[in-house]
Write a structure and sequence with these properties.
Rossmann fold, 7-stranded mixed beta sheet, 6 helices, 7 strands, globular
Length: about 200
């Protein structure tokens, strides 16, 4: 695994949650929409790079069996507090998102809000293979990542790039491009993609 991921714990320690763009203080609207529409079936799921756990809490309240992982001990602490406050059970794990320590084909659903676009280029193939390994047959991987409309960057993607990276591993079910006012008040552009193993 490439070095450089330790910064996330430092960020969670040094900045208040409300100042972090990805921390909305509530579940992502697109996740709520897809669950309500039945695009994501209830089952055993992994929230990868779970942060403060708001998406995990929403899923736990909607009868998912939730496992939530983050590389940051401080983020896991926040997620524990969120789960306790909301009175839900979440299985929280401190672990790398590159080398997932789960059995093969254990999850029905993997949720990724902003994890993939921070995976460094040399680690991308291992990350994608790891997600595929932990998903059951016909399992769903929901990824939300930065769009190229945010400006040129190594981790801002076009639809073509996403298809090139994931089509060898998953079937594309749905792709949506949209903007969102993030937790820090800044408008950003995203792709959300539903992929099926």
């Amino acid at each position: 695994m490439t070095s450089g991921y330790a910064k996330w714990d430092k960020i969670y320690h040094e900045y208040p949650l409300k100042s972090l763009g990805w921390e909305l203080g509530r579940a992502r609207p697109i996740l709520i929409e897809f669950v309500k529409k039945g695009l994501i079936k209830k089952g055993k799921m992994l929230d990868i790079c779970c942060g403060a756990g708001t998406n995990s809490v929403y899923l736990a309240k909607n009868s998912f069996s939730v496992y939530a992982a983050d590389i940051s001990p401080k983020a896991i602490q926040y997620a524990k507090e969120t789960a306790r406050r909301e009175k839900v059970k979440i299985n929280l794990l401190l672990q790398s998102f590159i080398n997932l320590s789960f059995s093969n084909e254990i999850f029905d659903f993997v949720f990724d809000m902003g994890c993939f676009h921070h995976v460094q280029i040399p680690d991308r193939a291992a990350f994608i293979k790891g997600i595929r390994l932990v998903l059951k047959k016909n399992g769903i991987y929901m990824i939300t990542c930065f769009s190229h409309k945010n400006g040129s960057s190594w981790n801002h993607f076009t639809k073509i790039q996403l298809k090139q990276m994931f089509s060898g591993y998953f079937k594309f079910i749905k792709i949506r491009h949209y903007s969102s006012i993030e937790g820090d008040g800044i408008k950003r552009f995203f792709y959300t993609v539903l992929l099926k193993k």
